[in-house]
Amino acid sequence: MNDNITTDDISILGQHIKNLDLEIELLNQDLQTIDILSGDPIELSYDYDSSSDCRASCTLKMFVKNSNYTIDDGSKIWLNRYIKIWIKILSQRTKQWLKYCIGLFMPLNNDFTYSDTDRLLECKCADLMTILTNTQLGGAETTTISADTNIRSSMIGTITQLGGIKKYYIENIGSLQSEGNNTVPYDLTFNCGDSVYDVVEKLRDLYSGWQTYFDLDTFMCTSIPTNTNSNIILDYQTIIDKALVIDEKLSNDFTKVKNVTEVFGSTIDVDDGRYTDTCTLSGSQYIATFSSTIDALESGGKYAVKLPSANLANPTLKIDSLTAYSIVDSDGTSLSAGTIDGYSVFEWKNNLFYYLGKYQCHAVCIYRGTQPTDTEKTTDKTTYNCDTIGYRINPDGIFTIEKIGIKKDVKTGSNYDVIYSNDLCLERAKYENWKTVRLANTLELTMQLVPWLQVNQLITYQLKSTGDIKTWTVTKISCSNALSGTMTVELTEYYPDYPESYL
Questions:
Q1: What pLDDT does 479 receive?
Q2: Would you say 308 and 279 are in contact if contact means Cβ atoms under 8 Å apart?
Q3: Number of CB atoms found within 10 A of residue 503's CB
Q4: Where are the beta strands (DSSP E) in 179-254?
Q5: I need a surface site. Which of 240, 254, 315, 414 has the fewest CB within 10 A?
Q6: Would you state the pLDDT for residue 89?
Q7: Could you tell me where the beta strands, DSSP code E, fall in 398-440?
Q8: Cβ atoms of residues 181 and 150 within 8 Å
């Protein structure tokens, strides 16, 4: 992603005389340039989509002069080749050509037609994520990534050893709300025939708020950007001065707006003999007695206890005559007073009891314009039958419960039943709540080509319909013919209140 935009890059926008060309580099398996394709490009269409893991795709049509491009292992376009595509624009001011890389692609297929009058190659391409989606796990045995393995290390091993990827940038994947929670929580098992991408996706989605994609030849795994403190890559005044916008379409789909998000995670299975409703509270210590005496605690073992009352700060749990250990959240943080009560499940490992939740993990996030009172918090717990409730507070929000009432979104099923604790359910609820507000206002612009514009960048734009100046996040870019000098850009209104304004 290029944020270093110069005055030369700005100067070429909106030129009345457009001189555009394409440069196509052919690369070998080591991503070394081995040729500049000698055909004459006649059409390039390309798409960027921030919501897709295969973020960049294109279709290239070329007039070719000989048979070097036929589909066989001796041709230039083959399965072990890559192409890097550049758009070239002639600056009318300096008379210099400026080059902008559209992407690094793998050919998916091509059609070569030949007659006395036509020699046309059409090559459909996608970015390097195709390597991971098309590479399957081998061997007759299942592949297992064990619990407590570092997620980042597991992903590095997966893409380099199984996918053959050499360059990567992978952040310390884990809970965005709780530092240090970055290990695989339970064994992950994959079968022969699963793709390398299946492994990457499962590791990435253990915690919410992460994305994977390729930036040219580099595999990226980063937190999904909220663009807080990001630079404005293109401002509304430049758009006006350069007359960049041809057409504007603003959509407000209020059916997508949800200001209360409820997430149901996994149900917690407890082995026979590890449940008791005999428990007392002495100070901050719970003392649980099991019908079948437990002589030793098992690492990773789950123990269900019906607590007699809400906890005090920094609680501990003593099982039968064994040592008492601290009760903590899934990230190892000691619990504050009033966090747990009733039927609760704990996992013992690392000399700590990790609070997992009740029978089913459950959390709610509510989008408000004001701080809730203690009475409102108590009412919310009763209304949603849930003790784990978080609040996003935005006094300027137009979709808060105070302004439009309660619009509830319930999240269940396969994408959520892998969430194994209440606090992780809450983290996911906050993230999903932010998305449903963020995607409500969509702007589609047909505009003159801005070759350096990328998804997940910020622009400001003055709406023709209302005159309002707002900040927008680029989500999709589509160019049906780059040599025509136009493009379509989809944007969503920027809301800067995630993840700071949590309660």
A1: 95
A2: yes
A3: 12
A4: 188-190, 210-215, 218-223, 232-234, 245-252
A5: 414
A6: 93
A7: 408-411
A8: no
CA distance linking residue 425 with residue 417, whole number of Å: 10
Strands 360-368 and 389-393: parallel
In angstroms, the CA 386 to CA 497 distance is 24
> Contact 211/221 with Cβ under 8 angstroms?
yes
pLDDT, residue 230, reads 75
Helix (H/G/I), strand (E/B), else coil: 325? strand
Total number of residues shown for the chain: 503
SS3 195: strand
Strand partners for 239: none
Q: Tokens 């501990």, residue? A: 316
Residues contacting residue 135 through CB under 8 Å, at least 6 positions apart = 162, 163, 164, 195, 196, 197
CB atoms within 10 A of CB 345: 26
The pLDDT value recorded for residue 66 is 62
Q: What is the mean pLDDT of each run of 10 residues along the chain (503 residues)?
A: 78 87 88 77 89 90 66 59 91 91 84 59 88 83 85 95 94 75 86 91 89 95 78 94 93 83 86 85 95 88 91 95 92 87 88 87 93 94 90 87 93 84 88 79 92 93 91 94 92 67 53
Query: Which two three-digit tokens encode residue 258?
Result: 């949800």
Cβ atoms 286, 501 nearer than 8 A = no
Q: Are 489 and 444 in contact (CB under 8 A)?
A: yes
For residues 387 and 357, what is the distance between their CA atoms, to the nearest angstrom? 10
CB atoms within 10 A of CB 128: 24
78 conformational bin, left if phi > 0, alpha if psi -120 to 50, beta if neither: beta
Please check whether residue 394 is in contact with residue 501, taking contact to mean a CB–CB distance below 8 angstroms. Answer: yes
CA nearest 165: which of 177, 153, 173, 157? 157
C-alpha dihedral sign at 23, 29, 31, 32 = negative
DSSP 8-state class, residue 491: E
Predicted pLDDT at 175 = 78
